[in-house]
Amino acid sequence: MKISHYIIFFIVVFTVYFIGNLYLFLKGYNIIPRSGKLLYTIAFIFLAAIFIVAKILESRHSTLFSDVLNIAGGFWLAFLLYTFIFFLFSDILFLILRLTGLLHPEAIPLYRKWAFILTVTISSLFIIGGFINAVIPVVKEYDISVAKQTDDVKNLRIAAVSDIHLGSIIRKRSIIKLSEVLEKMQPDAVFLLGDIIDGELGPVLRGDLLKYFHGPHTRDGLYAITGNHEYIGGGDRTIPYIESKGIRILKDEMVVLPGGIQVAGRLDRDSFRYSGKNRMPLEELLENTDHSRPVILLDHQPLNLGEAEKNGIDLQLSGHTHKGQLWPLNHLIDRIYEVGHGYKKKGNTHIIVSSGYGLWGPRVRTSGRPEVLQINIKFTD
Q1: Neighbouring C-beta atoms of residue 55, cutoff 10 Å
Q2: Domain ranges of the chain
Q3: What is the chain's percent helix, strand, coil content, to nearest 5?
Q4: Please, which residues have CB within 8 angstroms of residue 70's CB and are 6 or more apart in sequence?
Q5: CA–CA distance from 239 to each of 166, 231, 233, 243, 245 (Å)?
Q6: Is there a contact between 354 and 193 (Cβ–Cβ < 8 Å)?
Q7: Is residue 346 a contact partner of residue 306, using CB atoms and an 8 Å limit?
Q8: Helical H runs in 100-171?
Q9: How far is CA 185 from CA 130, 180, 191, 327, in A?
Q10: Are 360 and 74 in contact (CB under 8 A)?
């Protein structure tokens, strides 16, 4: 990514973050008694700065302290989102009540007080529920049929996991839990669909977190692809670390599983933005494909789905979207992606997009469940 793009990105992000925090700060400041305004200001600045400080510390030297700050800062991000939404709703309601004369001037201080109390309470309940949801993964099962010929393989059970995001928030306990879930599934093949690492490699190396991932014994093997987060902390470090744990990453490569089942794994589309390396066009990657046999495509970001249909892909597996992770961002995801989460069939191409096992930022999920995919394929030709 060019330096100018980094600068523009951070200016936009910090501007939005600053405006959101200022809006929330003023809401509280206006109802706090004068004697408490200084303490409120100090506490608010501390909370608003946690996430930024955590990211700076993590990039320089990862420690348990930076992990704790990351977790706390993530919760503040979620709190900021929901208080902003509900305060905005209360302001709109305030204008309606004032314009219609239903809210008398003497009742305005009471309205603002209760708007603050209800907003903070409801936002906190959202976050508590989202945290509980975020730590209880589920297995999402899909049954599909592919009318293609194989060598005596009538059924294939795939376990697919996207967006683990190992780092300062998703750590040892989560990766051990994932290993247990995969073992119980007894899949024929395991596919990791990118964003195995959250970003900076320091928090992962500090505990060598990936050593706790024990893929189940499979007939057809364990394969992975890169996601955009593999490049954020430096793909030249992150990718070799993943491969050092015996995980085969398909970097614009194809492998043939028993029975003649072909699996193509693409570099993430953001590899060029971070490393300057263009990924191979799909047509070129599939140049030597036998389309009389099943073809499975692993592509982290579910964009340009018509390309998979055009090139005769039988099943595309993707992640990246997290199903928005935080309501109402799932509605934005549905606008951006043809399939933001779940299943769709385009022609003869089955497309499945996972909400992911891990998360980014807040350890909170108010949209979607953390999931592991189980795809049961029946070959019918």
Answers
A1: 17
A2: 3-134, 139-379
A3: 50, 15, 35
A4: 51, 54, 55, 58, 167, 168, 169
A5: 13, 8, 10, 6, 10
A6: yes
A7: yes
A8: 108-134
A9: 26, 9, 13, 30
A10: no
Count how many residues are written for the chain.
381
**Are the CB atoms for 356 and 162 separated by under 8 Å?**
yes
Query: What is residue 10's predicted lDDT score, i.e. its pLDDT?
Result: 77
SS3 call for 191: strand
Asked if the peptide bond before residue 294 counts as cis, ω within 30 degrees of 0, the response is: no
Q: Residues 294-313: pLDDT tens digits?
A: 999 999 999 999 999 999 99
Cβ atoms of 243 and 199 closer than 8 Å: no
Q: In terms of Cα–Cα distance, which of 70, 68, 44, 71 is closest to 55?
A: 70
The candidate with the shortest Cα–Cα distance to 353, out of 187, 164, 163, is: 163
Which of 357, 150, 130, 374 minimizes the C-alpha distance to 261?
A: 150
| φ, ψ at 10 (rounded to 5°) | -70, -35
The answer to whether 275 touches 235, Cβ cutoff 8 Å, is yes
Domain 139-379 has CATH 3.60.21.10: yes
pLDDT, tens digit (0-9, with 9 covering 90-100), for 73-98: 999 999 999 999 999 999 999 999 99
Q: What crossing angle do the helices spanning 3-29 and 37-60 adopt, rounded to 10°?
A: 160
Q: How far apart are CA 376 and CA 188, in angstroms?
A: 10
Classify residue 197 by its DSSP letter.
B
What pLDDT, on the 0 to 100 scale, is given for residue 232?
87
**Structural element, H or E, at residue 222:** strand 221-224
- Secondary structure (3-state) at 302: coil
